[in-house]
Structure formats: C-alpha cells, structure tokens
Design brief:
Two copies of one chain form a homodimer. Chain A is of the alpha/beta class and 242 residues long. Helix content of chain A is 25%, strand content 29%. In chain A, the strands form three sheets. In chain A, strands 3-2-1-4-5-11-10 form a seven-stranded mixed sheet, with helices on both faces. A two-stranded antiparallel sheet of chain A has the order 6-7. In chain A, strands 8-9 form a two-stranded antiparallel sheet. The radius of gyration of chain A is 17 Å and the shape is globular. Chains A and B meet through strand 7, helix 8 and strand 10 of A and strand 7, helix 8 and strand 10 of B.
C-alpha cells in the first residue's frame, strides 16, 4: 500500500495548521538550509515528488524554471496546491511517486521534501529518478533523519514528571515500517539507515554534493519546542547530481 | 591538549585484551566493511593516522604498498607496532596527527581507524590531509558514529532491573568534548555531527565514494553484547578521493 496520511480528514486538518502549512517555506525550520542546496532553476524542467501544497513547485517557478510538475498521492493536498498556483503553468498530477512514469532524460531537477520516508523501497525509486534525469541533472531531497525514525514513536523519552530526558534510538539496522505518532495520529513511515540513503545514491552513480542535518535558525528558537531541536537531528538534506 | 588515553597503563592493559587487540583486523567487528572501502595498495605511499598497533599498516604493506608510515601519539602502542612489524620497512613516528608535517602530494592513501574522535578540530586536519595527498589520492577512515558520541556516556539506557531500554541521543548539535566511559576509564572524546564529518570533506573538494554504518558480521553475533550492535550505529566508515 502506498502511504497517504494526508487524505485522512483529521490529520489533514491538523497538518493544515502547522506553521509550514500556514506560512509556507519561511515557516519550515529547515528551509534556510534546503534553499542553499537547490540548483539554479532558470530554464530547468523541474519535478517535485510528494509536492504537498506545492510550495517548492511555486518557488522553482518563481526562480525561472521552464516547467514544473508536482506529484502527490493526496487529492486534498493537490487541491490546495492548484488553488495556490492559479495563474501559473505548474502542473500537478495525482500519483504515487512509486508509480510515476516519465520519459528518460526528461527532467533537469528532481526535488522532494519530507516524502521519501513514506516510501517502502528506496533503491528502485532512485533508479527511476536517475533515469528521468538528464545528464548532469540535480537531485535534492529532505527526509526525516534515521535517528528520528529508528525507534518508531518519534517522541522524546521523559522522566516521571514529564521532563524530556533524551531521544531514544533503537532497532537502527532493522529497516522498514514504523508506527509513528504525528500530530496525534498514527502514521506509517519507513525507517532506513543513513547508509541506505547515501550509498543507494553513490552506488547508482550519483555524485554527492552536500549532506546536511539542519539546525533551526536563530530567529525560530523561541517557538514552542524549537530549542529541543538542538538535541537530536530530525531531518537530513541531501544534494547530488547525475 | 592532544588526547592520548593509550599511555594510561590501566587503560592500555584493558585495551590490549580486546579482541581487536588480540586478533587484529579479524577481531574488529567493522573490518569486513572497512576492507571493502580500501583502495588497491599496490605501489602506493600510505599514511595511517592514529595507527595504534599498526594492523592497518601491516595490511597495506602485505597488499603491496610501496611505503607505509604509521603515526600515533602513544609510545606504548608504537612499541607494540614496531615489534609486530619487525622485518618490514614500515615506519612509525610518534606524533599527534594534528602536528604532523609532510611534503605536499607525498602520499597516495591516507587511512585512519577510530582515531579522529580524539581530535578536537577536524577541518584543519582534513585540509592538511588534502595537501599531503597526491591528486586522485584516497582517503578512507572510520570514526565513532555521531549517534554514539552525542550523549557522552556511550552507554545504553537501562531500566531498574538493568535491562537495556534503548540508546540515548542528546546535545547532538553541541559539538565538542565528551567524557566517555571506555573500558571502565574516563576518556575524552570529541563529538561532531554527521554534517561536519561529510561536509568538511565535500567542502574541501573531496569526492565521496562510500558512507557505511557497519553492522557486525553474522559469525560475530554470538559474541557477548554483539547483538545489541544491531540496535544503534556505533561506527561510521567513509571513503573519498581527492
């Protein structure tokens, strides 16, 4: 089954209130780091896998992309994306990224923000991305960090008074399904190791350019819970080229 | 101060009884993975930073290296290394790797096994390694994994009956000194993030080839405590070239 928590109305409602949903890219704690890894979009054919509300699609378009295709499995997300993108030629397609077919070499940039941890099999997907990319094409993505996904619950470990003690890691090498609590809802995610994320790219001939565990920016540190984000890595950003 | 726990007699005595000290490379749980990342040594000038007993130096020599220099700060370690290397032209030099000077482009392969987490400043060291390496030269190293070094104690988190609950991660982005308990002795190590390990190389123009979090080999899983090594990553192996 392809994971799609975003068409669960309760989950979608909660997600739509997160600062990254309300404020867009500027409301996402990792954006200031992800932005640095993005290539020059000018004249490029861009594909966004798991595009959600389409924030990155619109950014690519504003930065001069020639064409932009956003793909997502959630009809609710795409509805919002289409509304917000009215007046642009950005195309949105409802499709699981695992099922997407595109002509060989038809894309210059593939981006994906916090979506691959919903995908069970990473290697076949990377192989197809490599096939879609033109020679020299760029591949930039963010995922939940393996430290964050390993244990499963994605929650801190607390003392009896409810104070955070630390973040737990377990079953690190046991890749696969995790039942995570996200916005109070049970969400199925897939844990994989850092080795799998990076070596899958390297083994398929990608050149790695950056590997970044983003820290929240200074001006966000006073938001609720944000200082705790200095205590364990939550995301992993990777840029590579074919 | 340059860290050198190995000249503490009590620590050295305990270290000398570890399976990696008694059996050498075959007694090290990560060797089967590190070995795959090593380049062809034939005719190469090899430098081993933090060479300890000189196992990797001798391996390089046996694999056809043209010259091998092992550098370590511990006189006790080097004494053993010299004894074990009798009859070979392997050279050993007592020196902190941070203080080592070598001519530009005078080395084809730099290896380092589990030593960089004793070094406070990684970037200047990598810059000098890059300078020592001839064009196309190989750089392969292992370090303790950032997940393993972040919290500090390097121990599991237990319940009241002494059962392992999980491995704790904390202060991940707070790089620097950690007071670790290793073989029952307090040892100063330096935690740094994965971002720092990898991007330092990438920013200085190295090409990454492999990033591996080694799992213990099947035949070692019945050794005491080894099955727990599947629960969290303890080491990080990296291969790169200039």
């Amino acid at each position: 089954m392809k994971e799609n928590p975003y068409d669960n109305p309760v989950f979608f409602q909660k997600y739509s209130q997160m600062s990254r949903s309300v404020q867009g890219l500027e409301g996402a704690g990792e954006w200031h780091e992800l932005q640095k890894l993005l290539p020059d979009f000018h004249g490029k054919r861009v594909l966004d896998l798991g595009c959600g509300y389409g924030w990155h699609c619109r950014y690519a378009w504003e930065q001069g992309a020639d064409s932009v295709l956003g793909v997502d499995l959630s009809e609710r997300m795409l509805q919002v994306a289409r509304e917000k993108s009215a007046g642009t030629p950005i195309q949105y397609r409802r499709c699981a990224m695992e099922d997407l077919t595109l002509p060989q070499g038809s894309v210059d940039v593939v981006i994906s923000s916090l979506a691959f941890h919903y995908v069970r099999d990473f290697a076949p997907l990377v192989e197809r991305i490599r096939n879609w990319l033109a020679p020299g094409g760029a591949f930039v993505f963010s995922v939940e960090h393996p430290v964050f996904t390993a244990y499963g619950s994605q929650d801190w470990y607390y003392d009896q008074e409810g104070n955070i003690l630390h973040f737990p890691v377990d079953n690190y090498y046991d890749e696969g399904v995790r039942d995570a609590l996200f916005l109070g809802e049970h969400v199925t995610k897939y844990h994989r190791t850092l080795t799998t994320y990076l070596n899958t790219l390297l083994n398929q001939g990608f050149t790695l350019h950056h590997v970044v565990e983003p820290q929240p920016p200074e001006h966000m540190l006073d938001l609720p819970g944000m200082r705790n984000e200095m205590r364990r890595p939550m995301m992993l950003l990777v840029s590579a080229s074919k």
